[in-house]
Amino acid sequence: MKVVALVKAVPDLSESRYSKSEQRIQEKGPRLMPAVSENVLEVVRQIREMGKEVSAAGMLFGNQSEEAILRKALAFGLDQACLISGATDRTDPHVKSKLIAKAIEKLGVPDILVVGGASGFGGGGQVGVRVAELLGFEDVWTVQDAVSAKSKSVLVVEQGSNQPRIPNVMAVMKAGSKEMVMFKAEEFLTADEQKPVALISREEWLA
Amino acid sequence: MTEEDPLAFMRGEAVPAEDLRKREAVAQGIAVVLETDQNGKPTTASEELIGKTLELNSELGSRVTGCILGEKGEDYSKSFVHYGLDKIFFIEKPAKTPGQEIVSKLQSLFEKIKPELLIFPDTAAGRRMAARVAARLGTGLVTSVESMGIDFNDRSIEMTHTELQGKMRRIIVIREARPQMATLAAGCFTPARLDETVRSPVEKFEG
Description:
Chain A is α/β, with parallel strands linked by helices. Helices cover about 30% and strands about 25% of the residues of chain A. In chain A, the strands form two sheets. Chain A has a seven-stranded parallel sheet with strand order 7-8-6-1-4-5-9, sandwiched between helices. In chain A, strands 2-3 form a two-stranded antiparallel ribbon.
C-alpha cells in the first residue's frame, strides 16, 4: 500500500516583518513545518500500524532551502520525500495543487493521500483537497476507512486532531540518509500555466 | 431572455478555458450554494450568504441563482423561495452519494449557468466542496471571506480574510479566471429577510 502525505511550510512569524509602504509581509528566515503537518505525519504512522505493508512519501512545494522540513518529515517515519521548487507564486493554491498533482503522478499515484486542513496561513487547507480532486480521490473520514477503501482515498487531517509522536534521535539520524527526490516546477507546467489566478492585492498587519 | 427560459442569456457557445476574454464575456450573475439545517430549513449562515449575494448583485446588476443539495432537495428548496433569488436549482443527493458524483453535477450546473461569482458556505463540508469545484473549473478560491468589495474596472471582487490567528488581513482578487470563488465566513454579513411577496422559480438539475 502506497501513501503520500502533503507537508506544508509556513513563514516564521517571529522573524517576519510587515512593510507598510509595500503593504506586504516580508518573510525573513527559513519557513517552518506547521503543527497541522505533524498531525498529518502522525496519521501516516497510524496507517502503517494498521498492519499493512506501507511505503510512505512526503511531498512539499517550496524553496530548496525547505529541504530541512522534509528531513524532519522523514524522521517521522516516511520512506521518501519529494521537493518541488520553482519561481511560482507560492500563495496561489490553483497553481500549487496542479504542480503537486503532476509530481504525484510522476512518482506513482498512491492508494491513500493524507493532507492537512487549514494551517492558519494561506488558502484555508484547499491545496490538499484540490490535489485529491485532480487525482480523482474520494473523501474518507477515518484511518480505518482509508485502509479498507476499495478506491483511492484522501484523508483531510485537521490541526490538533491527534497527538503526534515526536521522533527520537535515532529516527532523526536515519532521516539524513533517506531518499529525497527533487523536481522543478517547469518540468510539469509552462511559465504560462504557472501564472496565479488569485492575486494578493495587499496585506494589513493587525497585531 | 424569455419567461420560459430565464437563464437563456447566460448560455453561450462553449468557451475554451484559455480564452479568458471570451469566457468573461459570458460569465454573468452570482451563484450561491446554500445549506440547510437537519430539518431542511435555511441556516443563519445561508441567510447571510443570500444577504451578501443580493447586496453585491444590486451593484453588479445581474442575477442570483441559489443551489440546494440534499436528499430532499425539492422540499429544502421550498424554504428558500421567499428571499428574492432569481432562480433556485436543486440537486437530489441521496445519502452516501460519492463526493465525486456531486462535484460532477455542480461542475455541470456551473458550466451551464456560467456565474462570474460563485459562493459557498464556510463550513468544513462547504470548504471541501468548494475546493473540489475550484479544481475542476480551474479557477481561484478564497476561503473564510469576511468582507467583499467590487472593483468596477473589471467587475472583480476584492475579498478580505484574516490569517495568522487574526494578526493579518489579506485582500485577494481573482482577475485571471472566472468564476471567482469564495466561501463566506459565518457571522460577518447581514442575513437576508424573508419576503412573502416574492417567489423564486425552482428547477431540478439532473446534471
